[in-house]
User: Fold this.
Amino acid sequence: MIELSNELTKRRARAFSAGEGALAWYRQRCAATMGDVDMSTGEGVKCYDPSTGMETWTIPESSDHLINTFIERARRAQPKWMKTEPAERAKILWACADALEAEQSELAEILALETGKSLTHECKGEVTLPASIFRYFSGLVHEIKGRSIQAGPKLMGYTTYHPWGVVAGVVPWNVPLMFMAYKIAAPLAAGNTVLIKAPEQATASLAYAFRLIAHLLPDGAVEIVSGSGSGAGNKLISNPGIDKVSFTGSVETGRAIYRQAAKDFRSVTLELGGKNPMIILEDCDLDKAVNGVIGSMRFTRAGQSCTASSRIYVPRKLMDKYREALGLALNDLKIGHALDPDTHSGPVVSKAQQTRIQDYLTSAASDGLDVKSYGNVLDEELFTKGYFVKPHLIFDPEHEHPVSQEEIFGPVATLTGYDSLDNAIEFANSTDFGLSASVWGRDIDACLTCADAFRAGIVQINQNAIMLPGFSYGGIGISGVGKESSLEAMRETYMFEKTNIVNFAG
Ligand code: NAP
Ligand code: MG
Assistant:
């Protein structure tokens, strides 16, 4: 039994009951869709609170029958939705945005409970994003425009954009509400209907948010599929009733989904992992750089971000200075229960992920690398029960070592010295990933040289990687295929382009 403060016990119970309520609503919705037939295979996936390791709830494993029924309903609803006046579609998306502004504090607590992300530093911010994403795409409904081509005196071509039909959006657990919003609002704005595969570790949060908007949407326009990735997720993305798959998650799952899509000749967009470099220039202000590392590496999310700057390059002569300054800043990070308002960083999401990260740290140490841990643990007993990993830095690992090449997806960054800018850029570009890259400093020539040379889909100068509506977002290499989050990306991802040729010579 874990002793928690009264306040924490109360907050945890409140989050638990709100999460259970959302899951009960979701079960009922599925049961109503299915009539008398059981919605699940009866198996279900057990979920745990990462901060304590205690079991929370079991989410239903959607049956084939439920998935097929959802897809049939989505197929029936799509032509009507596509033909709904743009002004009406925009109005519905805007109404969803208004609805998503309600009950944010309850939603933030469920999110913190099931993912282990810090309530104060992560969840309270994330719950504000879905409304702004729905508002952005509400505005884009009127912006779907093609081009015209004057091919001859009486020969004209013009292009038009058309929704794919039914989209399967597969959402990762790490920023689940934001990705759910992108994967509902963008395809809907484009005239598709949508099925969302909820991540196991954030199903209650997604159900809670979906409950806020479900009554505003036409029947069959959006549904959530719960259950395991290899079970319900795989059935969804390989169903012939799905026209487009939009996946965000790991490289490993992305590869399996890409293979399946190739087999079926189905259009697919993949937003995958990263091993993102951050080059700090000699003239960069030390405090700015240190804050930049804490923010860019997403230490407040225990490093669990696809754009986390997990490879930090500093001028070799400044290594000692950075080592000390980063150590001090990391020791200030309070590590505790995600629902504790004092916590800067909670645990990692699962026992399996904790073990995976610890294996990287153990093998780095046994290979003789210089590995240091930091952080201010708020409750030593809780720390041994939950899935905690302290923030770590690994100094000057060889470039070929797995800790320099593979996505650890935890609070572990490497700090490596460089001798020249060319040398730093060469390091930055030598992994198979290509999601984001950043450069920090005042020398504008050097900043622009790096920006130009980085092989990555997203580049920042003196800025953490952020996903903002309007900015296309996506990687190259094993970081993914295609983009999300902008007008252009909405057209490319959720619509196909048609070329129309007219001869009006008479
Ligand atoms: P994941 O294990 O690949 O899972 C992502 C989603 O795919 C989950 O909903 C998962 O369901 C589902 N899934 C798993 N196997 C499937 C299959 N065979 N068919 C269909 N769906 C399947 O990734 P994660 O652990 O949730 O998220 C972390 C990873 O996502 C990291 O690698 C991170 O870098 C990446 N990520 C990328 C971006 C980006 O925009 N580039 C953003 C955020 C995260 P279950 O939860 O039920 O297993
Ligand atoms: Mg996973």
In short: The longest helix spans residues 6-34. The chain has two domains: 6-273+481-496, 277-468. The domain at 277-468 is CATH 3.40.309.10 (Aldehyde Dehydrogenase; Chain A, domain 2). The chain has 18 helices and 20 strands.
